[in-house]
Amino acid sequence: MKKRNFILSTIFNAVLIVTELWGLSISLFNWYPGNAFPMPSAADNFRFYTFDSNVLLLVTSVLYLVVSVISYRKKKEIPGWVMIFKFVATVSVLTTFLVVVTMLLPASGIGMISWPYFLFAHVIDPVLALVSFAFFEVTKKKKKRKCFYVVAP
Q1: What is the DSSP string of 59-84?
Q2: Distance separating alpha carbons of residues 122 and 99, to the nearest angstrom
Q3: Cα gap 112→134, rounded to integer Å
Q4: Against a cut of 0.90, is the pTM above it?
Q5: What string of pLDDT tens digits covers the 153 residues of the chain?
């Protein structure tokens, strides 16, 4: 991996980790004063695909950050399974983004937007994940059959 890509990928993944932790903590613990939709319990959040895909992105970003630093220091390539895992997480949050932008917002109107969880979980994190993965993390062509892992979640 080029030094420029490594640095930008590290920055994007660090920002993703911080925003995911912030957004998920708001959703889990309802600690943000503007949160208007309290859940009866934290486990209820796992009913929602948005929450699940954002948890997957958080785990994947932490994993990718650790593995990329180790691989960069050892001058080795990032293992393929890590890239596939990151690809799956990126497509998962992009699915949420596309559903919200093309279906939920037009149907529900601007009133469904709540700061900050809505913007982080549905807009900012998916865009950050796409930019990070597509422009800084993909290093070589993958086999087409590995793309089918995306349909698993």
Answers
A1: HHHHHHHHHHHHHHHTT-PPPHHHHH
A2: 9
A3: 29
A4: no
A5: 788 888 999 999 999 999 988 888 777 776 555 555 555 566 777 788 888 898 999 999 999 999 999 999 998 888 888 988 998 899 999 998 999 889 888 887 777 776 677 777 888 899 999 999 888 887 666 555 666 666 665
